[in-house]
Amino acid sequence: MSNWHVNLLTLFPEMFPGTLGMSLSGKALDKDIWSYNSINIRDFSSGVHKSVDDTPFGGGAGMVMRADIIESALLSIPNQGRKIYMSPRGKTLNQNMAQELANEKVLTILCGRYEGVDQRVLDAHNFEEVSIGDYVLSGGEPAAIILMDSCIRLLSGVMGNNTTPDEESFSNDLLEYPHYTKPAKWVDSNGVERIVPQILTSGHHKNIEKWRLEQSEDITKRNRPDLWHKYIAEKP
Ligand code: 6GU
For the whole prediction, is pTM greater than 0.90? Predict the structure, then answer.
């Protein structure tokens, strides 16, 4: 077990590591900077049909995952750490939460399917509910992958050391300024000549810094008035 370990409770263990097995997170997995263990909830169903869900009390659409089966799966994990249930009704994941979860040693993430899971297992084992945004996915697995990605890139040794977290989107309540690279002069497919903003090739570092801050402020104002108001309120 690595220094950052995730136990995944899921009906689709083959969804992991998914994209986390590629690129920087994949290399970090190979290097044992992080590790995971997927547990198939279905393995803890005793019936001949291996069913894990049932109809909801009170009626209504869909099926609900059974508390007893989820609990058996959970109790098979010796070191559970912080317990998280991926759900659109949870507290929304943000950069602060990602950093906080990256600082933990062990997480256990429950991924629901169908209409959800019996509330009693969440209550009995104090699951924290986490959402990744205001839209509905068909299951918690892709949400767990996103949560894990946001944490893994913060683990030491995952990113190159020329990444400065405080220049990133959200770490200072501002979105990132635009980036440019060579060629400095480029003609697009419509024949429009597009040049890199003059200031970036000027070598004047103070002016570049000022320009980037202005760009960050403009794009935040335009795209995220909520973040903009927070930034203005907290600005020294
Ligand atoms: Cl965490 N799960 C599901 N199923 N849908 C979501 C979500 C989570 N976050 C946003 N939508």
Answer: yes
